Every structure is written in structure tokens, then in C-alpha cells.
């Protein structure tokens, strides 16, 4: 019996050591930890040059799947325009998760007030962004496609701390078909949002159900990093509609 137990333990040990760890950005590709860090480093360097100032990158594991011979973790890359503080951003937002989202009354591009009560009755996606945020701009075409498909079932809101004039000028060159709420610095500070883009998903009762960064970039073998198709966001929308 002792020999049998020892053999079983040895087999388990051998299996665990034979498992390889991979990362994926889209559920299809497979990259190593070194490759994932290289991609993140390249994005940080690229965006820092475009912005003319240092930005910071985070690699976040959103899901892990264990198979017989491998461990596969799905990851997202997030760009932070301020040096990250330990869990400050996610901590403050997490306080609202599974609770009715904080009420707001913000300005539209038409100088009208938009109240959070107007969202009740439909699920909502709220996108936090600003005009100089490269990942924010990159995901806009994908968000526009999602809105086109689900516009009858969902509210699509975009919130920024920037002024109406700056947003209006930006939208002439970069179509972003959400309902825009501007000059929202106090509200954004109240939420503790420091990382962009940030996407929040509310159910039809205004309860915050999901907190996500930007749409994940994807990189297939032999190809350059590019914006994904938003499949993770679509799955959330399908759950909430």
C-alpha cells in the first residue's frame, strides 16, 4: 500500500511539473510570460512616445484554465497615465459592485443635464475616456460596432473629465457614437478612476455588475498587436440584455 501511494504521489508530481504555463489575449493565441511582458513593454514605449510623457502598463489575468498539460491564463493590457497606486482604483470601484451605482447628474454636449435615473429600464455600458488616451481611441470603432448591434437593448454612455469644446472638436475626426457626458472631473475623482479606458456594465436596475478595462488587444502568431473584436464585452452584454 505504501508503495502504491508513493507511486501515485510521484505520478501527480510528474504531471504537475510537466504542465506548461501560457497566456492568451483572445482565447486562441498562446504566448509565454516573457512574450506577454515584451508586448506590454512595447505598448508602453509606443504610447509614451506618442504622448510625450511616461505612461505605465499593467498586465492583468482575467481568467485561468487548467488542462492536462498546460495552464492557460487570459490576460489584458491596461495603460495607466499615472503611476499605479496599490489597488486604489479597483478598490474604490469594487465598493460599488453588485450595488446600485452612484447617482450622477452631468452635462451633455448640448449643454443639457443627463441624470443617471434616465438609464433605468435598460442595461448600460459606461465608458470612461479622454481624447489623448491612445487605447481609448483604438477601441472606439469596436465600441461603435457593438452599439450599432445592441442600441435598442442597451444604454451606451461615454464620460470624460474634458470640456465640451475639446470633445466636440475630437469627435469631428474620431466618431464615437455613445451619449457623451463631459466636464465630469469631480464624478470621476469620486469613483477613483485613474486608469483609462475603463468600462462599467450596469444591469437594467442600475446595479454595477462588471468592471472592465479596455477591450483587450490581440496578437496572433507572426502578426502585430491589434485591437480585438470585443468578444468579452459582447458576452457580458448578452448576459445582461
UniProtKB/TrEMBL annotation:
Molecular function GO terms recorded: antioxidant activity; oxidoreductase activity
Occurrences of domain Thioredoxin (ranges): 95-239
Keywords carried by this UniProt record: Redox-active center, Signal
Keyword Ribonucleoprotein: no
One Pfam family named in its UniProt record: AhpC-TSA
Top-level division of the source organism's lineage: Bacteria
Keyword Signal: yes
PROSITE patterns: THIOREDOXIN_1 (PS00194), THIOREDOXIN_2 (PS51352)
Annotated signal sequence range: 1-18
SUPFAM superfamilies: Thioredoxin-like
Protein name: TlpA family protein disulfide reductase
Source organism per UniProt: Marinifilum breve
Amino acid at each position: 500500500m505504501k508503495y502504491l501511494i508513493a507511486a501515485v504521489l510521484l505520478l501527480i508530481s510528474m504531471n504537475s511539473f510537466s504542465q506548461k504555463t501560457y497566456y492568451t489575449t483572445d482565447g486562441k493565441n498562446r504566448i509565454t510570460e516573457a512574450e506577454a511582458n515584451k508586448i506590454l513593454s512595447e505598448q508602453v514605449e509606443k504610447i509614451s512616445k506618442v504622448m510625450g510623457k511616461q505612461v505605465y502598463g499593467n498586465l492583468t489575468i482575467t481568467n485561468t484554465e487548467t488542462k492536462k498539460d498546460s495552464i492557460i491564463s487570459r490576460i489584458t493590457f491596461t495603460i495607466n497615465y499615472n503611476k499605479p497606486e496599490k489597488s486604489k482604483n479597483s478598490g474604490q470601484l469594487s465598493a460599488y459592485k453588485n450595488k446600485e451605482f452612484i447617482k450622477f447628474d452631468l452635462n451633455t454636449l448640448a449643454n443639457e443635464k443627463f441624470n443617471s435615473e434616465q438609464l433605468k429600464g435598460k442595461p448600460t455600458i459606461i465608458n470612461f475616456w479622454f481624447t489623448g488616451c491612445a487605447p481609448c481611441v483604438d477601441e472606439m470603432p469596436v465600441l461603435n460596432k457593438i452599439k450599432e448591434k445592441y442600441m435598442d437593448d442597451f444604454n451606451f454612455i461615454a464620460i470624460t473629465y474634458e470640456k465640451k469644446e475639446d470633445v466636440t472638436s475630437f469627435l469631428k475626426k474620431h466618431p464615437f457614437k455613445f451619449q457623451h457626458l463631459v466636464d465630469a472631473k469631480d464624478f470621476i475623482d469620486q469613483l477613483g478612476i485613474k486608469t483609462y479606458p475603463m468600462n462599467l456594465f450596469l444591469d437594467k436596475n442600475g446595479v454595477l455588475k462588471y468592471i472592465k478595462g479596455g477591450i483587450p488587444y490581440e496578437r496572433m502568431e507572426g502578426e502585430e498587436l491589434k485591437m480585438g473584436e470585443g468578444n468579452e464585452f459582447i458576452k457580458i452584454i448578452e448576459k445582461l440584455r
